[in-house]
Amino acid sequence: MNRPLTVALCDDSGIFREGLAMLLDAAGVVVVASVASADELTATVRRTRPDAVVVDVRMPPTHTDEGIRLAASLRADYPELGILVLSTYVEPVWVTRLLESVPTGVGYFLKDRVSDARTLVDGLVRVTAGSVALEPLVVSAMMGAARHADALTRLSEQERRVLALLAEGLSNDAIGERASISIRTVESHVAAIFRSLNLAADTAVNRRVQAAVAFLDANRRRGG
Questions:
Q1: For residues 40 and 130, what is the distance between their CA atoms, to the nearest angstrom?
Q2: Residue range 178-206: average pLDDT?
Q3: Which residues have CB under 8 Å from 196's CB, separation 6+?
Q4: Strand residues in the chain grouped as ranges (E)
Q5: Least CB-packed of 60, 127, 149, 215 within 10 Å?
């Protein structure tokens, strides 16, 4: 993207939004709006058409899953909009619901991570490009809980490691660097994962998302 990334923020904490806006501004991201409610964000997106939005998972009036429902609503109206949901806690159930309703161009990070500008901007770039960016701690927790689920028993330990990194939204190159294996080995593991999970042939991005959803759903069925 030649022009600066444009982002709208939505969180009921004005102090948090101010700090996040300063962090993004310093990283070269243009914050077009900073609002406190779902209605305000919906109106802002309609007016400014940002590349992405950053949404708190818990907002008024119930402080439960407003961010998840807002993400689904925005995706229905704006298919190209990148959506990054932030949460204070590791909440696998919310991640599963998020990916079920918004399977591409979406991310889920912990708020503790937003102090890392590089990670935050990388996540925004990925969701804007239509990929998925998941919090590593959430992925790790879900992989552990789903370790004995039927969908994963066919995978080797190395394949499960690659699946966890794939679920974070990492590219094959990035997976190779993180796991200290060659790109050809990564490609081989990814192909084996697709076969083992019996994923339908589709674009690479869609199958990667399907693979992530597969183990998230396996964890959810086990009550994780």
A1: 24
A2: 77
A3: 154, 155, 159
A4: 6-10, 30-35, 52-56, 82-87, 106-110, 132-134
A5: 60
Lowest mean pLDDT: which of 29-38, 58-67, 121-130, 150-159? Answer: 150-159
Q: Which range scores top for mean pLDDT: 59-63, 83-87, 131-135, 153-157?
A: 83-87
Whether the ω angle into residue 61 lies within 30 degrees of 0, i.e. cis, is yes
CATH topology of domain 6-134: Rossmann fold (3.40.50)
**Domain residue ranges in the chain:** 6-134, 139-221
Q: Is the pLDDT of residue 85 over 80?
A: yes
- pLDDT at 10 (0 to 100): 97
Tell me which of 3.40.50.2300, 3.10.25.10, 1.20.1250.20, 1.25.40.20 is the CATH number of domain 139-221.
3.40.50.2300
| Cβ-contact 38, 53 below 8 angstroms | no
Single-letter residue type at 124: L
Residues 6+ apart with CB under 8 A from 88: 58, 110, 111
pLDDT in tens, 29-63: 999 999 999 999 999 999 999 999 999 998 888 88
For the whole model, what pTM was predicted? 0.71
Spatial contact of 126 and 205, defined as CB atoms under 8 Å apart: no
Q: What is the CA radius of gyration of the chain?
A: 17
Closest CA to 37 of 1, 4, 18, 63: 63
